[in-house]
Write a structure and sequence with these properties.
5 helices, mainly alpha, globular, Arc Repressor Mutant, subunit A, 3 strands
Length: about 130
């Protein structure tokens, strides 16, 4: 039988990427579930921890859009939930009233520090 077409190989590669992503997200969800977090929750905390490494540092929500693979409305809901859980705080950007700042709380920073090794170990298992 004939060799796979370039298009079929491309489709296979794409499906492999999607499968790896789905399995990895499920594994991260599994290890973070006991801490009340999912993979997307962790991703926001992780970006905030790296973007704003000191207590009180702020990050604009707009800087998260595109880095967290959620729609803008889903990201807004996630941020609202993280705020309700006391993991971050939101404030309006004085310079641009349409903008919103987010800040990791001490609780959010501590939780991120606690679960970071679990998330990285999950990544190593799934992608290593």
């Amino acid at each position: 039988m004939g060799a796979k077409t370039a298009e079929a190989r491309l489709e296979d590669k794409w499906r492999d990427i999607l499968s790896t992503h789905a399995r990895t997200m499920c594994e991260i969800d599994r290890v973070l579930h006991p801490y009340g977090l999912g993979a997307s929750d962790f991703e926001v905390l992780d970006i905030l921890a790296s973007e704003s490494p000191r207590d009180g540092d702020q990050c604009r929500v707009q800087n998260l859009v595109g880095r967290v693979h959620l729609s803008q409305s889903a990201l807004s809901r996630l941020i609202a939930r993280l705020e309700k859980d006391g993991l971050l705080e939101r404030s309006v950007c004085v310079e641009d009233r349409r903008g919103v700042w987010v800040t990791l709380t001490t609780k959010g920073r501590d939780l991120h520090t606690e679960v970071l090794p679990l998330q990285r170990a999950a990544l190593a298992r799934m992608l290593g």
